[in-house]
Input
Amino acid sequence: MSSPRDRVTREFVRRVGAPPTLLARAPGRVNLIGDHTDYNDGFVLPMAIDRAVWIALRPRDEARVEVHSLDFGEDAAFDVHDISRGGRGWAEYLRGVAWALGSQFDGQRGTTLCGWEGVLAGDVPLGAGLSSSAALELATARAFAGACDLPWEPVTMARLAQRAENDWVGVKSGIMDQFISAAGVAGHALLIDCRSLATRAVALPDDVGVVVLDTATRRGLVDSEYNERRARSESAARQLGVKALRDVDERMFAERAATLDDVTRRRARHVVTENARVLAAADALAADDARRVGELMNESHRSLRDDFEVSRPELDAMVEIARAQVGCFGARMTGAGFGGCAVALVTRASTERFAADVARRYEAEVGLTPAVYLCEAAEGASLEII
Ligand code: GLA
Output
């Protein structure tokens, strides 16, 4: 199948009768380690992947957006100065981003939101935990910035996209997905301090491959379970007398944890230990010590499964199967959990064979057909002027 870049360009020409003037792109992501830490002001180590959402567009005089989604075979349209909620679905991410951008830029320093017409498509699997929604949000932000001459500043745009997700779509997610989609660095994972938003790009060793393993399971309740984990984490921080769980290290936790009920204590323990693992993993990766990174990933999975309780049997099975293969340094569930993908770190020489063997064994043991993606670390959101 042709690339989403080609597909959106071709469809734009077919519909509009002229080539697009801009091509906006924003990638999905896989998180190597550090889950459910971002909304606790903690640390994460994701990378943007070589799968993205693309929008072919051209600005228009009217302040109205008209867009066609090739993936859904649907149209959406809205007035950028009078946006109302249109129900659920892909177009809400565009409306939410327009709303967040409008509240930031409209009338400021001579900037104002304009309209555009476009066609969008992507190859980030939907709902798999690879941040197809953050990719859509950032591609939309990139499209608006290109069409309306807004300043492109990745951190500001990541924050605005998070605002769209939190306050328009209604999922109380942290900053990780939007941040890495905006600011990813090719060939690198990005250590992000989710409090200060300081980053450190860590090169992925040439001889190491990142393999994403989709369990082919999805869980409908993920939003409410997610919001519950977030609320519980905030309550743990309050009870421990800190602003966020980020402020608790392992020693302080050992001293104060007895005051927490069992569930809250285990949730907090995950966050506290995961933050330490992320920092250790970034150092190990920078030192080319993939074996150590793999061990930390394995521990992270255990903690997400037993303490934070966001795994599920198919994810556990996938991780076990991955670890049993030759050349695998470590594996863990990745993202919010409750279904979706695991990520494995593998010697580059064995990635193809690893992918085939894991898929075959998972299907035989679990009875579901997984998807397997060999991923390269990609650049964050970009814009081509044609
Ligand atoms: C989802 C959220 C992120 C993060 C992860 C879990 O992907 O969007 O902000 O909390 O879950 O690490």
